[in-house]
């Protein structure tokens, strides 16, 4: 469990924006855009908003979900099918993992705000 969270530390904090382009999400999650498009087909939970010209706009919860999928596949060694099962609710501990990721993200953002206020 600690191993999985240690690699997500390498990922940059999620900015406080409402929408993110596929390029931004690619950088935030350490995954190439074509992988993100593939994961949209494989994981029903991943549904970015599509606008003009089929452009994808991801929201914060999408970015968190992608980081969780990335952790399941790359860090914990799940297959696509296994990761899909874990995310579909059969893995209650994943809710806890996602909550821990959200808390970690909030803490990072609060520490950034605190450092800005100190200067």
Could you please describe the fold and organization of this structure?
The protein has helices at 2-8, 22-29, 33-42, 60-75, 80-90, 92-118; strands spanning 49-51, 55-57. Helix 1 (2-8) crosses helix 4. The chain has one domain (15-118): Orthogonal Bundle (Multidrug-efflux Transporter Regulator, Chain: A, Domain 2), CATH 1.10.1660.10. The protein is mainly alpha-helical. It has six helices and two strands; from the N terminus they run H-H-H-E-E-H-H-H. The chain has a two-stranded antiparallel sheet with strand order 1-2. Strand 1 and strand 2 form a beta hairpin. Residues 1-6 have low confidence and may be disordered.
Sum up the structure in keywords.
disordered N terminus, 2 strands, two-stranded antiparallel ribbon, 119 residues, Multidrug-efflux Transporter Regulator, Chain: A, Domain 2, 66% helix, mainly alpha, 6 helices
Give me a quick take on this structure.
The chain has a single domain (15-118), classed as Multidrug-efflux Transporter Regulator, Chain: A, Domain 2. 66% of the residues lie in helices and 5% in strands.
Strand adjacency order, main sheet? 1-2
Helix content: 55-70%
Describe the main β-sheet briefly. Answer: 2 strands, antiparallel
Give the distance, in angstroms, between the N- and C-terminal Cα atoms.
36 Å
Rg of Cα set: 15 Å
Query: Outline, from the CA principal axes?
Result: globular
CATH architectural grouping: Orthogonal Bundle
Give a count of the beta strands, DSSP E runs of length 2 or more. Answer: 2
Number of domains: 1
Q: Give the number of helices.
A: 6
């Amino acid at each position: 469990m600690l191993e999985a969270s240690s690699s997500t530390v390498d990922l940059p904090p999620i900015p406080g924006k409402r929408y993110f382009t596929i390029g931004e999400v690619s950088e935030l999650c350490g995954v190439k855009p074509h992988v993100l498009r593939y994961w949209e087909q494989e994981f029903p939970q991943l549904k970015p908003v599509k606008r003009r010209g089929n452009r994808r706009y991801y929201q914060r919860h999408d970015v968190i979900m992608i980081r969780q999928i990335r952790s399941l596949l790359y860090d914990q060694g799940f297959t696509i099918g296994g990761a899909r099962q874990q995310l579909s609710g059969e893995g209650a501990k994943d809710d806890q993992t996602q909550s821990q990721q959200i808390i970690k993200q909030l803490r990072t953002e609060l520490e950034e705000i605190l450092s800005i206020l100190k200067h």
